[in-house]
Design goal:
Blueprint (H helix, E strand, L loop, with lengths): L4 H11 L4 H16 L10 E8 L7 E4 L5 E5 L11 E3 L7 E8 L2 E4 L8 E4 L2 E3 L2 E3 L4 E9 L4 E2 L1 E4 L1 H7 L11 E7 L6 E2 L3 E4 L6 E3 L8 E9 L1 E2 L4 E6 L5 E5 L8 E4 L2 E4 L4 E2 L4 E7 L7 E6 L6 E9 L17 H13 L15 H25 L2 H9 L12 H6 L3
Helix pairs in contact: 1-2, 1-4, 2-4, 4-5
Length: 410
């Protein structure tokens, strides 16, 4: 049974108690990341995932206003699943990303609309920029099983802008080009506060995805038990969404907007009762986004292999891989402990001896070599690498083919 992070820290402290827990934790983490250094490709850092591209949505028409991020639809049925997808009108406009969906007929773009104000416009919503997994470090290969080829990974936005500045090409994808970093939100949702009435309080849940802080208002419009009581709600000063019946199951959350949900415990709700739900915006550091080109607007999947970033060994649930001996991490950490002279000259570290540090380092290198051999028996990286790259790459005639030349004056 592999030692846990806490157990390894405890074993270090048995030898070097003067270090204290925080310093011992740092030594164990440093040892772990030294092992995970990219000079050896470990089997447990080899990952598989897939980019799932939804079908293009273009139902209805839209109104766009210059210098505004709001898009208003007619005969549209937009959903929160469209957040993160791209929005565009024709091939001569900028491609925008949808940052939030307020209703079936209202959405918000990540940047203000730069074109002229216009109404009754046809449009497209599709996924042009794909986001990698949270543990992504680098691609090994991305492929199209339908056409039996790999997508090229060595093209930049500059090359695409030179070849297809309008991004007018769509259909079978030939390549992925790095675009930017995602800006997904990780905002908090507070519990409802009753501002009017005496009925029981609903609960709230979810991760707020809106770009700025907001207040949601929930008001009972038909009193009664759950499954009978009806409410309406709005975000900030917007219009109400009315006629929403409370779910008959007390634990079922009903989404309002931007990841904010409410649920109604068993009880009798009173006409006119009003609650406020505070949502606080917050963003993470973002993940790399890549542009799929030409843009694939059909329902599609692109599987890919990639190298993972090593997990945080101190995180809950992280298990030390099979090929790593517990003593390897311990020996590396003890080498660091034996190299630490202590907090000050008058408080020397009794465990401090450079020859002892060297002994632990040599033992660690021996265990590391054994671990690499053990891992190589599980994962023959050279063979997998050659098989993967021998797949044909997608032909890229579109970067200067006859059709492109006919459409461009050079």
């Amino acid at each position: 049974m592999p030692d846990s992070f806490s157990t390894l820290v405890g074993r270090v402290l048995l030898r070097c108690p003067m270090a204290g827990r925080f310093l011992a934790e740092d030594w164990v983490r440093e040892a772990w990341y030294d092992i995970c250094a990219p000079d050896h490709r470990w089997s447990w850092l080899y990952g598989f995932d897939q980019f799932l591209l939804p079908a293009e949505y273009e139902t209805g028409t839209v109104v766009v206003t210059r210098n505004s991020t709001t898009v208003t639809g007619t005969s549209t049925v937009w959903t929160t699943e469209m957040v993160g997808r791209q929005f565009r009108i024709g091939t001569t406009s900028v491609i925008y990303t949808i940052s939030s969906v307020e209703s079936g007929t209202s959405l918000t773009l990540d940047k203000v609309w730069g074109g002229a104000t216009a109404s009754a416009q046809t449009y497209e919503i599709y996924l042009a920029y794909v986001t990698v997994p949270a543990d992504f470090q680098s691609f090994i290969s991305v492929w199209d099983p339908n056409f039996n080829w790999q997508l090229a990974l060595d093209f930049s936005q500059n090359v695409l802008n030179a070849a297809d500045a309008q991004r007018s090409n769509s259909g079978n994808a030939y390549l992925l080009a790095w675009r930017d970093y995602s800006t997904s939100s990780i905002g908090a949702v507070a519990q409802p506060i009753q501002v009017l009435g005496t009925g029981p309080d609903p609960g709230s849940s979810g991760t707020y995805t809106g770009p700025s802080n907001a207040l949601f208002t929930v008001e009972i419009t038909t009193g009664g038990a759950i499954g009978t009581a009806v409410y309406r709600w709005k975000k900030d000063g917007g219009s109400y969404t009315s006629g929403v019946t409370t779910d008959a199951t007390s634990s079922v959350a009903q989404e309002l907007q931007d990841g904010v949900s409410v649920y109604f415990p068993t009880g009798t709700y009173v006409l006119g009762d009003i609650w406020i739900v505070r949502a606080t915006a917050g963003s993470n550091a973002g993940l790399p986004r890549y542009e799929v080109w030409p843009h694939q607007k059909a329902l599609y999947v692109y599987p890919f292999l990639y190298w993972k970033r090593p997990p945080d060994i101190s995180a809950s649930g992280v298990v030390i891989p099979y090929s790593i001996d517990n003593n390897l991490i311990l020996e590396m950490a003890l080498a660091k402990a034996a190299s630490w002279p202590g907090p000050s000259a008058d408080k020397p570290n009794p465990f401090y001896r450079l020859e002892l540090a060297d002994r632990h380092e040599r033992k660690a290198q021996q265990l590391l070599a054994q671990a690499q051999v053990k891992d190589a028996e599980i994962f023959m990286s050279d063979v997998v690498y050659q098989e993967a790259t021998q797949m044909p790459f997608a032909p890229i005639p579109a970067l200067g083919d006859s059709d492109w030349l006919q459409k461009h004056d050079i």
